[in-house]
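re: ur question from the group chat, yeah i did fold both. here u go
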Amino acid sequence: MSRALTKLGALVAAVALLFTTWSVTTDRRAEALEPFTGYLMAHFTGEHSNGEQIYLAHSRDGLRWTDLNNGAPVLLSTVGTRGVRDPALLRSPAGDRYWIIATDLRIASGTSWSDAANRGSTSLVVWESTDLVNWSAPRLLNVAAGISGAGDAWAPEAIYDPASGDYVVYWATNATLNGVKKHRIYYVRTRDFRSFTSPVLYIDRGAGQGIIDTQIIESPGSVGGYRFYRASADGHITIEGSNSVLGSWTTIGNLSHMGISNGTGGGNVVEGPMWMQFNGRNEWALWLDQYATSRGYMPITSTNLGSTRNFQTVTGYNLGVARKRHGSILNLTGAEESRVLAKWGTTAPFNRIQSYNFQDRYVRHADHDVRIDSNVSPAQDAQFRVVAGLAGSGTVSFQSVNYPGYYLRHSNYDFVLAADDGSATFKADSTFRQVAGLASSSWSSFQSYNFPDRYIRHYAYQLRLDPITNATERADATFRLTS
């Protein structure tokens, strides 16, 4: 091939690549201008084994929510403490990029709150996406490293600042300043969630009052007199207004008149204020986590944020099955909503796994051990969703109905119910090939993905992974999926 033709080919390829990139970017930017049709909530669920990971829920009306991904985590942190809390979900103004940032903290690992606050991670965990459904590997952003004596970096949030064309990332850090150690809000600026400016003090309530949870929402029409509104858990739930993200803020009031506080005012003690604007109208919900009574989030609504007296309580909301803890809500365009629901919205039916040679017995978990039993109570202990295999196509995995995110897996050839830890070993141990039943072809047997000479079988009613060599073992290794 001539050098001229080679150059011409390279030029054509470059133009094609440029056109493709421009088309994709243009499509994403067009999405940002579409009307919103739904809502996506990112949250964690609590301090249990897999509760401090990224969960998603979807709503059409902003009040009634459905857990996505069959109630299992959507993203698992494999960095830092290997757990995340308080996720914040945001979209770029162009609609071509998304980020999730979260606290790097896993209390379920045995860490005490004192250790976490005084000797914890000073990094945030970040995921990045161009389509809201395919996410990068998690990475750490050590935002609080420049704060003297920083003990942690908690409850991060981020907002695009139109005045500067970059993002303000803000969070709480426990550190000593002017002889007082407490949580204050700091911020950095970034354009890419990789490099960032030095941390700057953002909110300090004075005296000994700490502040951890704060979240800002933009009101483009400045309804109520301000472009931005800020809700903070600082003993009360304090509402402030400003016309710039980093400008001066005016205190509007708190929710003490509604019997709601963050502890100082007693009453219904809440945390984790989470803003949401209802699609297509000037009405906002402020979701509050009733952590003191373990009742989960409740919404209060307002059509004018210029006075806290405009808030009112709401009935008829439903948060789905999983308990929602401190998170954030993103309004979805129709295209975004379609992608999210196509990826995580299908709810797999549940099955029971019936033994071939003990047909009154079904596979069940009890204290995370796995066996076959009759008359299983509660019934959900014997209910599993048969989902696409975690380790390979054409295979299956068994996800617990009442412990979403937990799967049947073998460990030293014994079976347990365990939380998906994101590792390749876990995925392989919990993946099986469904084949014709070894004792009856109208039933099924389940061949191990990573030990193909072994099958799921019961022995003395306990579930095991064994090689199968005789008629008794073939019967023990034969099951039927029933409703």
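okk and heres the other one u asked abt
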Amino acid sequence: MSKFSPFDATLWYATAAPAPQTVPLAGRVQADVCIVGAGYTGLTTALELVRKGVNVVLLEAEQAGFGGSGRNAGHCTPTFTHFSLPELRKLLGEPWAERLIARQTQANARVSAMIERYQIQCEWQQNGYVQAAARPGAIDAIKRKVEEYNAVGARTRFVDKAEVEAITGSPRFHGGWFHSEAGHLNPLGYARGLARAVQQEGAILHTGSKVTNVTREGLRWVAHTADGSVVADKVIFTTGAYTVEGWPKLDQSFKIMRVFVAATQPLSEEERRSVLPENTTMHDGRGDIYVYKYNAEGRIVASMFPMGRRGRDLAYTHQVMSDRLKWLHPQIRREIRWEYFWFGELDMQARTIPRLYGLAPGIVALTGLSGRGVPTGSMLGGILSEWALDVPEQELSLKVEPLHKAPFYMSFGPQLTLRYYRARDWLKTRMDGAPLPPHA
């Protein structure tokens, strides 16, 4: 399989509202701020700035949402994944940790508000998220999550075995963490809606305009494309995992980790009454994750990480995904057809939270979202816009750091971690006397 799946092969490309009309950059234009990359982070940064009267030009090499913003699975859960909140506080220190925690845990309110304000057609459903306790021994950790997140203002609760089965339709779980503010959407539809909002507010968006380099011109910066240039006081790179050229060594600040997403045929009305009957987003609670939800057509959209044959052998991968889904939901008796299958790329770095790099006076880059796409990308626009508006660096929610190369171990560390999680889950599940899913 190719490194980059064809963008037009995704479910979202087939079902999203049309992209707004744009043209490539031609000639020399002026701006206060030039933003490079029209994913969620770049689009929301542009939106924040232009609403404050800043003259913004946004350049995108392909089309709005072409990268992770248009390829992800569409989950919108305002949480952190790898680290607990106490661990984040130790890692980042104060006041940085508390500021970032506040922004991330409130991110879905921002997403919902933008969708409502600009009437973005993106299948937005805010029916909650369940992270399951896949074995009895996982319940204590779930209850700690409830305490940690509720202490910072989130609305979450522990659900017991009976309630988690009522919410999800699966008899396989022993409890779960229910996050009522979470939602899901068509991610490309959301990106295109943000692009339309950016234009509506008065910013200029040029697609098909890859930035090849940025040079100094007096007190200003010039972002160069094949057929034009933008002269600006400040430049912000928000190209994430799809960074190609633009600034020396920026693409070395992270390592790529691949994820695949697949979508079934539409389930019947009868099946939908018993499989995810409340239209929630579902995480099966294993370290080697299986996350799934519906799209507007009633297709199950599920994601996993490649491992061994999984992700390389398409027929085998489809079988693994079907076996897991039917194990979780024995009421699905017919054959599952995975009618869409695609890959996305994650810009991973060791802390698994975004990194804000100062590249030169007046230029920053933000990479390393590490898979926390929709809510994280949406809230980062607030931080970057504050930087562009000259909020002192010590008052931002992310530290501005010098650019540095991702450590070598990130080339294999995430995959080793997944394999460790898989082995740990297998052992602990056996010790708990709970059943294991197929291919565990």
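fwiw on the second one: The chain has two domains: 7-73+188-254+350-406, 129-180+256-348+413-432. Residues 129-180+256-348+413-432 form a domain with the D-Amino Acid Oxidase; Chain A, domain 2 fold (CATH 3.30.9.10). idk if thats what u expected
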